[in-house]
Model the fold of this input.
Amino acid sequence: MWRVKLEGRPELTIHDTRWENGERDLVLYQPAVVPEMPAPLSNLHNRRRAGVQETAPGSEELRVMGWVAVPGDRPTVKKTFTTAGFVEVCGLDELRELTSRPDVELDTAFVLAEPVRVDLDDPQDTDAVQHALFFPEEDERTPVVFFLLSRVVPTLRHIGWLPKPVRRTPARV
Done:
């Protein structure tokens, strides 16, 4: 269980459920008594789960899909983005920090016939793909942070509990 604290706001809880088959499931937990909060956030409770799964049977690498919660009264999900669009929603600095961890990589979720380069230093804005975050099996924190960035934070920005990200062009290296 992970807790998210925002000053002056109710505490949010993320459950990290582990299944016998080795998969994990991350979800914003709905407490027995839901504190007063805007409908878009309240309706995110127990919805828009993030499944964590092996990349291949017996692999020690896991992935979580880069699907993003689309804010609104009823949460929906958007699965494909250009890398620039994905960065705009999830935050360039936050994704860079997350992918700077050992063996953590943002890439396309599936092998494509025409490969698309996922590069946070030069995010492409032409091809929409499904993104995924790949990380080592023993890494407990990475999938939770990615779940926050892609499922919870867009809703918190939508309801005004977090500021909108500052738009800026990534520096080319």
